[in-house]
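From the shared-data thread, chain only:
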Amino acid sequence: MICTPSASREADKDIQPSAMREMRGPDFPSCLYCMIVCVLKGMAPADEPGCPCCCNIRMKQFLPSILVWLLCPIYLLSQERYTYREGDPNGIGKWYMGRQIAHVMSHYGIEWLERPEREKEEGAEMLMKNLALHPGMVVADIGAGSGYYSVKLAAKLDQGIVYAVDIEPEMIAYLQKRAKAEGFDNIRPILSTEQDVKLPTSHIDLMLLVDVYHEFSFPYEMARSMLDALNPGGKLYLVEYRAEDSRVPIKNIHKMSSKQAVREFEAAGFRFEKNIKNLPWQHCLVFSKPG
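Structure, as tokens:
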């Protein structure tokens, strides 16, 4: 028997719609309306009345594809945020808003972080005064390293908490031993990631970043994470060697201009308040979380 097109169409009439959907198999929904409705309702496309793209599948069968479709623009935006090219050999070849990101100082630099002349070079006690600390504050030392500033903060906040955040497990281990040896039970070492400080939302009164932000591999994501962890109205103190001052004896890639720093933090949602210009070699830039 030869099946003509007309005969085929006649035969199709005897097939129930549900059987037709079974024959089609797990096709991905073809219309945006159906896909959005299915995501919101957690139902199969065939269950949505009036939608021409009916396939007899359940959400779990095409949810991965939907997630990729939805998240792909976010991923691409993140990729476009950074550029990659050669530059200073002390950098990682990754650029953000025209600034090359520097290599991270590892735990092998602990001796340098604890050098005796650091107090004179950075005016550490003056910086402590700039912070205007008061009892009971919850403070985060971001990129705490060896804990040089963490222990100074803890000594002034015997009724508060200091979260000492670092990305290196070796630094965290060093911080734990140091806090125990020096009797600071108010220091809480926290292991972060490249994109997340791993602190509770709206929990921190004040954050301190000393000579570390310029090394963040994902500065925008980290800034957003820090903003999330700050209480509304909370302060962030960014301390970086002055790029505008050629007399500061530090490699250029480990410096930042105030203009660049303000530009980057405002892009992440911070409000710039002031630059306290009383440190020997560094900016002391104050930002806050709106609200």
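The first strand starts at residue 82 and ends at 84.
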